[in-house]
Write a structure and sequence with these properties.
The protein has 376 residues and is an alpha+beta fold. It has 2 domains: 192 residues, 2-Layer Sandwich (Ribosomal Protein S5, domain 2); 166 residues, GHMP kinase, C-terminal domain (Alpha-Beta Plaits, 2-Layer Sandwich). It is 39% helix and 22% strand. It is built from 10 helices and 11 strands. It is globular, with a radius of gyration of 21 Å.
């Protein structure tokens, strides 16, 4: 993913060139939705779209940040140590500096420019890409001793504790450690991870539904609260504990808690099955798991919506598609599907056209990345 030259743009804003640049990718989750904050298993991979941060240190505690997330606006400012939640994109920056200071890392003020190609509200972790790219830039600028796991942990604290989105650690872990050729199999309880090669002979297609979602408000936090209530009733610390014991107790839970727990338990099992399918290149089984995951999100966890369901149905009606599912936190966002190798662009175009005719909404293809338009 290309960006405009950072130095001229940065210099025009701040009167000097950047000292460092760093970037991080968005992610698409192949399996394991709403399992991460329940201590479960997840299987994301990186997407080509990235967020880039150009940054140079200052000699005081003043922080100035410009962003393509607020194109045309002058740089925003705050003082290091005086972070206050404002309810907009700057909170993700403030959350990172607050997390670093709270963890005992020594930084000073800085000027920064954020250029992001990761679409906001598409369920592909634009916020985690921003957090990790900023922390990487600060690591380089201030010679901080931060490994990639610590970067993910600090980015998660920024979003969970400061921004107020009660997300699990998957998004930040993927932005910090995932790549585009492999899936990142992560146990969010232990943070043990393994990179598993993606199968050959497929096109991984990601379509933004055009229905934006928001982690910090609404149903996402409500679902997490429901899981915590279920844990209290079942007497377990996290729903991951039901992998080995207590599954029979699920049926005794009141609704909708029983369905919420059933999704988490079965989704963890699907992650394990998806990893096994990846290892042997079983695309048909992986597609079946994709579709089963979507049904579980739609019916048991209730994080889908009519537009998303339509897009999944349209995609699965194409004989070249092995399976499709909602990806990300839900309540809008994106779908991911498995298409025959080389068919991805056409599958995406046909699905988007039918989806638009049925819903009036425009689906945007994120993967495979569209070729740039060139003038004759």
């Amino acid at each position: 993913m290309s960006f405009p030259p950072a130095s001229p743009l940065f210099s025009s804003l701040f009167g000097r060139p950047p000292a460092v640049t760093a970037s991080a990718p968005g992610r698409v989750n192949l399996m394991g939705e709403h399992t991460d904050y329940n201590g479960g298993l997840v299987l994301p991979t990186a997407i080509p779209q990235r967020c880039e941060v150009a940054l140079t240190p200052r000699g005081d505690r003043r922080i100035r940040v410009a962003s393509t997330l607020a194109a045309g606006e002058p740089p925003r400012e705050y003082r290091l140590g005086d972070e206050q939640r404002l309810g907009d994109w700057l909170d993700y920056v403030q959350g990172c500096t607050a997390a670093l200071v709270a963890a005992g890392f020594r930084i000073a003020g800085f000027d920064a420019r954020v250029d992001s190609a990761v679409p906001v509200g598409a369920g592909v972790s634009s916020s985690a890409a921003l957090e990790v790219s900023l922390l990487r830039a600060l690591r380089a600028a201030f010679a901080l001793t931060l490994d990639d796991v610590t970067v993910a942990r600090l980015a998660h604290r920024a979003e969970h504790d400061f921004v107020g989105a009660r997300v699990g650690i998957m998004d930040q872990f993927a932005a910090s450690l995932a790549d585009e050729s492999r899936a990142l199999f992560l146990d969010t309880r232990t943070l043990a991870f393994e990179r598993v090669a993606l199968p050959t002979g497929i096109d991984l297609v990601v379509l933004d539904s055009g229905v934006p979602h928001h982690h910090a408000t609404g149903g996402y936090n409500a679902r997490r609260a429901e899981c915590e209530r279920a844990c209290a009733l079942l007497g377990v610390a996290t729903l991951r504990d039901l992998d080995d014991t207590g599954r029979t107790a699920i049926a005794a839970l009141p609704e909708p808690l029983a369905r919420r727990v059933r999704h988490v338990v079965t989704e963890n099992a699907r992650v394990g099955a998806a990893v096994a399918a990846l290892r042997v290149g079983d695309v048909a089984e992986l597609g079946r798991l994709f579709t089963a995951s979507h049904v579980s999100q739609r019916d048991d966890y209730e994080v889908s919506c009519p537009a998303i369901d339509t897009l999944v149905d349209v995609a699965c009606a194409d004989a070249r598609v092995a399976g499709a599912r909602l990806t990300g936190g839900g309540f809008g966002g994106a779908v991911v599907l498995l298409a025959e190798e080389g068919a991805g662009p056409d599958v995406a175009a046909r699905a988007a056209a039918t989806y638009a005719a049925r819903t009036g909404l425009r689906a945007t293809r994120l993967m495979p990345v569209p070729a740039p338009v060139t003038s004759a």
